[in-house]
Amino acid sequence: MDTLANLGLYGLGTMGSALALNILDNGFALHVANRSKDATDAFATEATEASLADKLTTHGSLADMARNMPAPRAIILMIPAGKPVETAIEDLCDLLEPGDTIIDAGNTDFHDTRRRTAYVEGRGLTFIGMGVSGGEEGARNGPSIMVGGTPDAWSGIRPVIEAIAAKFEDAPCADHLGPDGAGHFVKTVHNGIEYADMQMITELYGMMRYGQGMEPAAIGARFESWDTGALKSYLVEITGKVLQATDSKTGKPAVDVILDKAGQKGTGRWTLIEALRLGQSASSIEAAVAARSWSSEKETRVAGEEILAGTRNAVELGEADYADALLAARIIAYAQGFRLLSAASDEYEWSLDFARIAEIWRAGCIIRSSLLDDISAAFRGDMPHGQLVFAPAFADRLSKTVPALRRVVAAAALGGHPIPALASALSFIDTFAMARGLTDLIQGQRDFFGMHGFERLDDGSTGQHGPWWE
Ligand SMILES: NC(=O)C1=CN([C@@H]2O[C@H](COP(=O)(O)OP(=O)(O)OC[C@H]3O[C@@H](n4cnc5c(N)ncnc54)[C@H](OP(=O)(O)O)[C@@H]3O)[C@@H](O)[C@H]2O)C=CC1
Ligand SMILES: O=C(CO)[C@H](O)[C@H](O)COP(=O)(O)O
C-alpha cells in the first residue's frame, strides 16, 4: 500500500478526540464519527475553536462515514475493547472494500487482534492492531505508538503515525513491531509495567505517610525532587503533582478525598494471563493487579482492620532508601516486562526488537522514564543470558540500590505496611542471584506424593525416585 489512505476516526471520547485534533494539527484531512451525535458536534466546535476544522468532515454514524469517505479508506477505531470493537469491525467489513484498512487503536487483548486480523484480511481488507499510550495529553500532543500488522499495512499509515507520534530527540516514538497482535501485546505489557510502577510508588507513599507521618504535600515534594535524577519519569512527576494538590471543596489534600478502590480496565490482567500461559511470572505486575483487586474490597478491609487488629507502625528510613528502593524495583519491573515480551516473541514468532521497543517508550507514553534510554542501550549491547538485570549497567545499578530495597521491604514487614510489589521485586532478584535454589525440596515432595520423579545432581539421570518408601 503506497498511497496514503483517506483517514477516518470513530470514537470521539477522551483519546479519540485528542488523537483527532493531533491528526488535524499535523495537516491531515480527517473524517470523524461517534456513536452519540452530541460528541461529534462538540468535537466539531472544539476543532473550529482551535482553527483545525478546515480539513475536518463529520458524519452521523460509522456507516455514514464509511460510505461517504472516498477510497482507499483507513478507519481508526478508538472505542472500548470487546463487543464495541467487534461490532464496529463486523459493520466495516460489510461497508469497506479491498484496499481499505481498519485500525483498532484502543487497548485490545492481542488474542482478539490475532483472530480479527485473520478474519478481516480474509475479507480482503487490511487490519492493524495499534497500541497508543500517553493518555489524553499524549494523544493530543504526541503519544507512543506500537503498531502490529503487515509491513505493507504499516507503510500505508506510516507518514501519519510518525507525524502524530511523540518525538525523542526528533525521532518518532512509533514503529511497526511485528505482525497481527504484536503491537497490542507490547502495549498490554507496557500497561503491566505501568501497573507495577504505580503500585511500587504507592507502596512507598504509604510507608512515608503512615510509617513516618509525612503529609501528602511533603511526600509530593519528595517525588517532585526525584523527578530530576535517576528516577526521572512521567509517573514520578505526576505523583508529585497529585500529592501536592488540594481539594478546593474541603481544603484537604486531594488524595484524602479519593475512595481507596482502584479501577482497572483489563490490560494488567491480560498481561498476567499471558505470562502464565507462557509459563512465565511477572511477579511485580501480578502483585500490582492483586493490590488493585484487593483494594476493591473496601468493606472487607474495614471489617479486617478490626478483626485482625491491623496496625501500621513507625518505620525509620532515609529519603535515599526510598529513592533507591524505587529505582531497584522499577528496574526489576521493566526486566519482568521484557522477559514476557521475549517469551511471547518466541511463542508467536514476532521477532520483537526489544531495544526499539524501549526507544519508542522514551517519550509520549505513561511509563516514559530516563531508564529507557539505558534499557535500549543494554539491549543493543552485552546482555548475558538475554536478561536485562544481568546487563553490566543494570547489574551495577542493582548492586547499589538493592540494599535499600532490602531495608525498605524489611522495615515495611516489621511495621505492618503492605508492599506486595516491592517484596515480589526483591524476591525475584534474590531468586536469580542464587545458583542453588530451593526447588530440590519441591521435587522431593512431588516425587513423594505423586511418583513424579526427579533428576539427580550427581549423574544427571532423570526419572529418579527418593528413598521415601523404604
Ligand atoms: N484514557 C486513556 O488514558 C487511554 C485509553 N486507551 C484506550 O482507548 C480506547 C478509548 O478510551 P477512552 O477514549 O479513554 O474512552 P472514553 O470513555 O473517553 O470514550 C469512549 C468512546 O467510545 C465510544 N463507545 C463506547 N461504547 C461504544 C459502543 N458500544 N459502540 C461504539 N462506540 C462506543 C464512546 O461513544 P459515546 O460518546 O457515544 O459514549 C466514546 O466515543 C479504549 O480502548 C481505551 O482502553 C488507550 C490509551 C490510553
Ligand atoms: O492505556 C492506558 C494508559 O497507558 C489507559 O489509561 C488504561 O485505561 C490504563 O489502565 P487502567 O484503566 O486499567 O488503569
TrEMBL record:
Any one Gene Ontology MF annotation carried by this entry is: phosphogluconate dehydrogenase (decarboxylating) activity
Enzyme type, top EC level: oxidoreductase
Pfam families per UniProt:
6PGD, NAD_binding_2
The protein's UniProt keywords, in alphabetical order, are: Gluconate utilization, NADP, Oxidoreductase, Pentose shunt
Q: Which Gene3D superfamilies match?
A: 6-Phosphogluconate Dehydrogenase, domain 3, N-(1-d-carboxylethyl)-l-norvaline Dehydrogenase, domain 2, NAD(P)-binding Rossmann-like Domain
Q: Where is the active site?
A: 187 (proton acceptor), 194 (proton donor)
Positions of substrate binding: 107, 133-135, 190-191, 195, 265, 292, 446, 452
Question: Which positions in this protein are listed as binding NADP(+)?
Answer: 11-16, 34-36, 79-81, 107
Give the protein's biological function: Catalyzes the oxidative decarboxylation of 6-phosphogluconate to ribulose 5-phosphate and CO(2), with concomitant reduction of NADP to NADPH.
Subunit notes for this chain? Answer: Homodimer.
The family classification in the record reads:
Belongs to the 6-phosphogluconate dehydrogenase family.
Name by which UniProt lists this protein: 6-phosphogluconate dehydrogenase, decarboxylating
> Which organism is this entry from?
Marivivens niveibacter
